Amino acid sequence: MTGTDLALATSLLQSGHLVAIPTETVYGLAANALDATAVSKIYNAKQRPSFNPLIIHIASADEVVKYVTEFSPLAQQLAKAFWPGSLTIVMPKNDTVPDLVTAGLPNVALRVPKHPITLQLLSLLNFPLAAPSANISNTVSPTTAKRVAQSLGDSASYILDGGKCDVGVESTIVSVLENQVTLLREGGISKEQIEAAIGVHVRTQADEKITAPGQLKKHYATQKPLFLVDDMQDALRNHQTKKVSVLLFETMETTENQIPYLLSSDYNLSEIANNLFEMMHLADEDNSDFILAERCISEGIGRAINDRLLRASVR
Ligand code: AMP
Ligand code: MG
User: How many Å lie between the centroid of ligand 1 and the Cα of residue 231?
Assistant: First the structure.
């Protein structure tokens, strides 16, 4: 069932049920993060491997201290700069957080989402919400309530409808451990923005071999093959005879066999991110044989877009 009944969402979560919630990034499938039985339902509903930890959503930065052994000055600075917002901060966890949430890791991922309905919901609850994206694992993430229902059916007891997500790609994840900030996943907030806000170098996987657990190579996958190309003009010339869906970042001429999805008419990165998953869903549903997408420029949120496209693509 889909709707905007906050009281119903609250009581379902209080009794250990799953509720899908809107955030500014993508929809989340939420459960009481402190109730391991409720959390286990998330893994079941999503068919998510148990080694892939969950992000905990809290109402404000004041709540961090309840779940960590140390809320370091650096982490506090990040929270102050970006919360509510699309930055997830990984910190050393305390015993309040069930091991199932962190997949056995000693650290917990926390975020204050920026969506009025979900912030209101969090303030009505006396526990935080564990919430990964509200879709079956490895499929394209949902940015509308309709896509949640399509992917999960009735396994969410309720879908709280908050309209289309603003950002459209998942949060950026950084760890703040031993006074070092390390980028674990590209997302809505860029490395440059983080460095500008705290004046500290953000390490990346290029600096060191650190990966976020559960960051699967194949993820966000469409049913149809999706091919990532370096030059769309070129690719369109080479694929004139086959029926193909094309994800375009700017206006481009296509032929009869090419079904265009205009993510942005002028290469606006926020717009591309915002439309990415919904257009991937639409391209998956049309009558083409495969999907073509162009590699995005590697700057700001463009890197998050490339990350999602690469994981969705046939290699
Ligand atoms: P999703 O909410 O589906 O976008 O997935 C959450 C992602 O957050 C996981 O795939 C992990 O890579 C990352 N994550 C969650 N908890 C942790 C943690 N404790 N340490 C590092 N990464 C984490
Ligand atoms: Mg996900």
Answer: 32
